[in-house]
Design a protein that fits this description.
With 237 residues, the chain is an alpha/beta fold. It has helices at residues 41-48, 71-76, 94-105, 112-124, 136-148, 166-181, 193-199, 217-221, 224-231; strands spanning 3-12, 15-25, 30-34, 56-61, 64-65, 79-81, 154-158, 185-189, 202-207, 210-215. Strand 9 and strand 10 form a beta hairpin. Bound molecules: adenosine-5'-triphosphate and magnesium ion.
């Protein structure tokens, strides 16, 4: 399911947060979305997944224009996302969170990646713990399980690796790769460049709301403009 972002812009009041952002995500591809804090990554994901609107630009899912559709409508079209803050239904148990996501998805057939993540959670903490007591890394894994309950065709992930231990990182990245191998398109926001280079098929770099580089992971991380954006200095003497 080809996902295409074309000339998207966003202002908050007078503040321009995104300008002329364009890139595509093809089925089965993992696109890394990187950039310094405040670059506009989450804002772009919020627009792409129906949590925020904009009047400028076009986003299409398999050719269908989707700006203005609700998150629920987009979910039914095959899009799922995870949240940077690892948000869950905090007053409910881990199991109840999974059940609620399953109810919303309305389907019984879970992808094998879902079973793997839930099996891991079962071993780690059990499923009856209150969600409010879960550490951030566990919350991100629950968020992943909830997002893939109904096998999405497009998965948008906002810094899912922050706060995860090594086993959790392996599980999460293994699951994402396996989903991609079965045709799911992925946008992965991530600050750890090693993870990005190892996992992504291509990388898009946002800096102050504009795409400053795009391409193969190794080329992008060696790009002078990208290094400058991260260091906040000019490398030209
Ligand atoms: N609702 C809002 N109202 C006003 N400004 C906002 C709003 N949401 C985000 N911003 C601003 O937009 C800019 C981009 O924020 P965004 O959260 O998209 O960045 P990010 O790339 O996800 O950063 P991080 O890596 O820290 O998560 C920031 O300057 C932020 O303060
Ligand atoms: Mg963010």
């Amino acid at each position: 399911m080809t996902f295409s972002i074309h000339n998207v812009a966003k202002n908050f009041g007078g503040l321009s947060v995104l300008t002329d952002v364009s890139f595509d995500v093809d089925p089965g591809r993992i696109v890394g979305l990187i950039g310094p804090n405040g670059a506009g990554k989450t804002t772009l994901l919020n627009i792409a997944s129906g949590y925020l609107g904009t009047r400028t630009g076009t986003i299409t899912l398999e050719g269908r224009r989707i700006i203005g559709r609700s998150p629920a409508q987009l979910h039914r079209l095959g899009m799922s996302r995870t949240f940077q803050d690892g948000r869950l239904f905090d007053s409910q148990s881990l199991r109840r969170n999974l059940d609620l996501a399953a109810q919303i998805s309305g389907r019984r057939d879970r992808p094998e990646e879902y079973e793997r993540v839930v099996g891991f959670l079962q071993e780690r903490s059990g499923l009856d713990v209150p969600a409010a007591n879960l550490p951030h890394g566990t919350r991100m894994l629950v968020g992943l399980a909830m997002a893939i309950t109904r096998r999405p065709r497009l998965l948008l992930m906002d810094e899912p690796l922050a706060g995860l231990d090594q086993d959790e990182v392996s599980l999460l990245l293994g699951s994402v790769r396996s989903l991609a191998a079965s045709g799911v398109g992925v946008i992965l926001i991530e600050h750890n460049i090693d993870h990005v280079v190892r996992t992504c098929d291509s990388v898009v770099v946002l800096d102050r709301g504009t795409v400053i580089a795009e391409g193969a992971p190794h080329d992008v991380v060696a790009d002078t403009a990208v290094i400058e954006a991260y260091l906040g200095v000019s490398l030209h003497a």
